[in-house]
Amino acid sequence: RFRQVLTYGGGAIHKFANNTSEIKKLAACDFEDILQCAIPVFEGLFPPNHDATVQSLLYQFAEWHALAKLRLHSESTLAFLQEMFNKLSQKLRKFRTDTCAAFDTWELPKEKAACQRRVAQCSESHDVSLESTGPRVKKFNLNTYEFHAMGDYVGSIRFFGTTDSFTTQIVHINNISSIIHLKPSYRASLHTEPLKHSTH
User: Fold this and answer.
1) Nearest CA to 1 among 58, 45, 32, 55?
2) With contact defined as beta carbons under 8 Å apart, do 93 and 52 qualify?
3) What backbone phi and psi angles, to 5 degrees, belong to 13?
4) With pLDDT > 70 as the criterion, what percentage of the chain qualifies?
5) Is the pLDDT of residue 142 over 70?
6) Which long-range contacts link 92-96 to residues 24+ away (Cβ below 8 Å)?
7) What's the CA gap between 110 and 135, in Å, rounded?
8) 44 in Cβ contact with 51 (< 8 Å)
9) Residue 125 pLDDT more than 50?
10) How confident is the model at residue 104 (pLDDT cuts 50, 70, 90)?
11) Distance CA 196, CA 194 (A)
Protein backbone atom coordinates (compact mmCIF):
# COMPACT_ATOMS: atom_id res chain seq x y z
CA ARG A 1 0.00 0.00 0.00
CA PHE A 2 2.81 2.45 0.75
CA ARG A 3 4.21 1.79 -2.72
CA GLN A 4 0.92 3.00 -4.25
CA VAL A 5 1.24 6.42 -2.58
CA LEU A 6 2.24 9.05 -5.14
CA THR A 7 5.05 11.52 -4.53
CA TYR A 8 4.00 15.01 -3.54
CA GLY A 9 5.61 18.44 -3.62
CA GLY A 10 9.31 19.18 -3.83
CA GLY A 11 10.36 16.30 -1.63
CA ALA A 12 7.39 16.57 0.78
CA ILE A 13 6.45 12.92 0.13
CA HIS A 14 9.14 10.69 -1.39
CA LYS A 15 8.52 7.48 -3.33
CA PHE A 16 8.33 4.49 -1.01
CA ALA A 17 10.30 1.26 -1.40
CA ASN A 18 8.60 -1.98 -2.43
CA ASN A 19 8.59 -3.19 1.18
CA THR A 20 8.53 -0.37 3.70
CA SER A 21 9.09 -2.70 6.66
CA GLU A 22 12.41 -3.84 5.16
CA ILE A 23 13.88 -0.33 4.73
CA LYS A 24 17.25 0.11 6.43
CA LYS A 25 18.94 3.27 7.74
CA LEU A 26 15.79 5.38 7.85
CA ALA A 27 16.34 9.14 7.91
CA ALA A 28 14.08 11.61 9.71
CA CYS A 29 12.24 12.42 6.46
CA ASP A 30 11.53 8.69 5.89
CA PHE A 31 9.84 8.36 9.29
CA GLU A 32 7.90 11.55 8.57
CA ASP A 33 6.69 10.27 5.18
CA ILE A 34 5.55 6.99 6.73
CA LEU A 35 3.65 8.81 9.46
CA GLN A 36 2.00 11.27 7.06
CA CYS A 37 0.74 8.46 4.82
CA ALA A 38 -0.02 5.86 7.50
CA ILE A 39 -3.70 6.71 8.12
CA PRO A 40 -4.99 5.93 4.58
CA VAL A 41 -2.51 3.06 4.17
CA PHE A 42 -3.64 1.27 7.36
CA GLU A 43 -7.34 2.01 6.90
CA GLY A 44 -9.42 -1.16 6.74
CA LEU A 45 -6.56 -3.57 7.49
CA PHE A 46 -7.93 -4.45 10.94
CA PRO A 47 -11.38 -5.52 12.17
CA PRO A 48 -13.64 -2.48 12.72
CA ASN A 49 -13.18 -2.24 16.51
CA HIS A 50 -9.37 -2.40 16.24
CA ASP A 51 -9.29 -0.27 13.07
CA ALA A 52 -10.83 2.65 14.98
CA THR A 53 -8.16 2.32 17.67
CA VAL A 54 -5.33 2.23 15.11
CA GLN A 55 -6.69 5.20 13.13
CA SER A 56 -7.13 7.26 16.30
CA LEU A 57 -3.60 6.40 17.45
CA LEU A 58 -2.08 7.33 14.08
CA TYR A 59 -3.93 10.64 14.07
CA GLN A 60 -2.71 11.39 17.59
CA PHE A 61 0.86 10.58 16.53
CA ALA A 62 0.56 12.92 13.53
CA GLU A 63 -0.84 15.70 15.72
CA TRP A 64 1.95 15.29 18.30
CA HIS A 65 4.57 15.21 15.53
CA ALA A 66 3.22 18.40 13.95
CA LEU A 67 3.43 20.21 17.29
CA ALA A 68 6.90 18.87 18.05
CA LYS A 69 8.18 20.17 14.68
CA LEU A 70 6.91 23.73 15.08
CA ARG A 71 9.64 26.27 14.34
CA LEU A 72 8.20 28.80 16.75
CA HIS A 73 6.90 27.89 20.19
CA SER A 74 5.12 29.80 22.92
CA GLU A 75 3.99 28.78 26.39
CA SER A 76 0.58 27.84 25.00
CA THR A 77 1.99 25.59 22.23
CA LEU A 78 4.34 23.86 24.69
CA ALA A 79 1.44 23.26 27.06
CA PHE A 80 -0.58 21.86 24.14
CA LEU A 81 2.36 19.62 23.15
CA GLN A 82 2.52 18.24 26.69
CA GLU A 83 -1.23 17.65 26.66
CA MET A 84 -0.97 15.83 23.33
CA PHE A 85 1.78 13.64 24.73
CA ASN A 86 -0.40 12.69 27.70
CA LYS A 87 -3.27 11.74 25.37
CA LEU A 88 -0.91 9.85 23.07
CA SER A 89 0.49 7.90 26.02
CA GLN A 90 -3.01 6.82 27.01
CA LYS A 91 -3.80 5.69 23.46
CA LEU A 92 -0.51 3.78 23.24
CA ARG A 93 -1.31 1.87 26.43
CA LYS A 94 -4.81 1.12 25.15
CA PHE A 95 -3.33 -0.08 21.85
CA ARG A 96 -0.93 -2.39 23.70
CA THR A 97 -3.59 -3.75 26.04
CA ASP A 98 -6.49 -4.21 23.61
CA THR A 99 -5.26 -4.40 20.01
CA CYS A 100 -1.82 -5.97 20.41
CA ALA A 101 -3.15 -8.65 22.73
CA ALA A 102 -5.67 -9.71 20.07
CA PHE A 103 -3.06 -10.59 17.44
CA ASP A 104 -0.11 -12.96 17.23
CA THR A 105 2.89 -11.11 15.78
CA TRP A 106 6.25 -12.53 14.67
CA GLU A 107 9.65 -11.12 13.85
CA LEU A 108 10.36 -9.99 10.28
CA PRO A 109 12.35 -12.23 7.87
CA LYS A 110 15.36 -9.88 8.12
CA GLU A 111 15.23 -10.12 11.92
CA LYS A 112 15.07 -13.90 11.75
CA ALA A 113 18.02 -13.98 9.32
CA ALA A 114 20.07 -11.71 11.60
CA CYS A 115 19.29 -13.97 14.58
CA GLN A 116 20.35 -17.06 12.62
CA ARG A 117 23.64 -15.37 11.64
CA ARG A 118 24.36 -14.59 15.30
CA VAL A 119 23.57 -18.19 16.31
CA ALA A 120 25.82 -19.51 13.53
CA GLN A 121 28.74 -17.32 14.66
CA CYS A 122 28.24 -18.41 18.25
CA SER A 123 28.13 -22.08 17.30
CA GLU A 124 31.40 -21.77 15.36
CA SER A 125 33.28 -20.13 18.21
CA HIS A 126 31.83 -22.16 21.09
CA ASP A 127 31.12 -25.53 19.46
CA VAL A 128 27.40 -25.14 20.04
CA SER A 129 25.07 -27.21 17.88
CA LEU A 130 23.14 -25.12 15.34
CA GLU A 131 19.42 -25.82 15.43
CA SER A 132 17.04 -24.30 12.92
CA THR A 133 14.32 -22.33 14.63
CA GLY A 134 11.28 -20.53 13.28
CA PRO A 135 10.52 -16.83 13.69
CA ARG A 136 10.15 -15.69 17.27
CA VAL A 137 7.06 -14.06 18.73
CA LYS A 138 7.34 -10.26 18.92
CA LYS A 139 5.35 -8.15 21.36
CA PHE A 140 4.73 -4.41 21.26
CA ASN A 141 7.25 -2.87 23.63
CA LEU A 142 6.72 0.55 25.21
CA ASN A 143 9.87 0.25 27.32
CA THR A 144 12.22 1.69 24.69
CA TYR A 145 14.30 4.86 24.55
CA GLU A 146 12.20 6.28 21.69
CA PHE A 147 8.99 6.27 23.72
CA HIS A 148 10.81 7.39 26.87
CA ALA A 149 12.39 10.38 25.06
CA MET A 150 9.03 11.65 23.82
CA GLY A 151 8.24 12.79 27.34
CA ASP A 152 11.35 15.01 27.32
CA TYR A 153 10.48 17.01 24.20
CA VAL A 154 8.91 19.94 26.03
CA GLY A 155 11.86 20.25 28.40
CA SER A 156 14.36 19.90 25.53
CA ILE A 157 12.63 22.60 23.49
CA ARG A 158 12.70 24.94 26.48
CA PHE A 159 16.41 24.28 26.99
CA PHE A 160 17.80 23.88 23.43
CA GLY A 161 15.19 25.63 21.28
CA THR A 162 12.87 24.26 18.58
CA THR A 163 13.62 20.85 17.07
CA ASP A 164 14.53 22.27 13.65
CA SER A 165 17.78 23.55 15.23
CA PHE A 166 19.10 20.05 15.99
CA THR A 167 17.25 17.62 13.69
CA THR A 168 19.14 15.36 11.26
CA GLN A 169 16.53 16.13 8.60
CA ILE A 170 18.28 19.40 7.68
CA VAL A 171 21.52 17.57 6.90
CA HIS A 172 19.65 15.00 4.79
CA ILE A 173 17.84 17.67 2.74
CA ASN A 174 21.05 19.65 2.18
CA ASN A 175 22.87 16.52 0.99
CA ILE A 176 20.12 15.72 -1.52
CA SER A 177 20.07 19.33 -2.74
CA SER A 178 23.85 19.35 -3.20
CA ILE A 179 23.91 16.06 -5.11
CA ILE A 180 21.09 17.18 -7.44
CA HIS A 181 23.10 20.25 -8.51
CA LEU A 182 26.35 18.35 -9.16
CA LYS A 183 27.54 17.56 -12.66
CA PRO A 184 26.34 14.09 -13.79
CA SER A 185 29.90 12.73 -14.18
CA TYR A 186 30.90 13.83 -10.68
CA ARG A 187 27.61 12.61 -9.15
CA ALA A 188 28.04 9.18 -10.77
CA SER A 189 31.56 8.77 -9.34
CA LEU A 190 30.70 9.75 -5.76
CA HIS A 191 30.37 6.14 -4.61
CA THR A 192 33.12 4.68 -6.82
CA GLU A 193 36.10 6.88 -5.85
CA PRO A 194 35.44 8.21 -2.33
CA LEU A 195 39.15 8.60 -1.50
CA LYS A 196 39.83 10.69 -4.58
CA HIS A 197 37.02 13.16 -3.76
CA SER A 198 37.98 13.41 -0.11
CA THR A 199 41.57 14.37 -0.93
CA HIS A 200 40.91 17.03 -3.62
Assistant:
1) 45
2) no
3) -125, 115
4) 64
5) yes
6) 92/57, 92/142, 92/147, 93/142, 94/53, 95/53, 95/54, 95/57, 95/140, 96/140, 96/142
7) 10
8) yes
9) yes
10) confident
11) 6
Q: Which of 64-78, 94-108, 137-151, 171-185 has the lowest mean pLDDT?
A: 171-185
In one letter, which amino acid is 149? A
pLDDT at position 198 is 47
16, 33 Cβ separation under 8 angstroms = yes
Residue type, 59: Y
Q: Which ranges of the chain does DSSP label H, i.e. alpha helix? A: 28-42, 48-68, 75-94, 109-126, 145-150, 153-160, 169-180, 184-188, 194-198
Higher confidence at residue 1 or residue 101?
A: 101
Distances 150 to 9, 126, 143, 145 between C-alpha atoms, Å: 28, 41, 12, 9
Q: What is the reported pTM?
A: 0.66
Do 45 and 51 form a contact (C-beta atoms < 8 A)?
A: yes
Question: Which band of pLDDT confidence, cut at 50, 70 and 90, is reported for residue 115?
Answer: confident
Contact 20, 60 (CB under 8 A): no
Q: Which residues are 8's β-sheet partners?
A: 13
| Max CA separation in the chain (angstroms) | 62
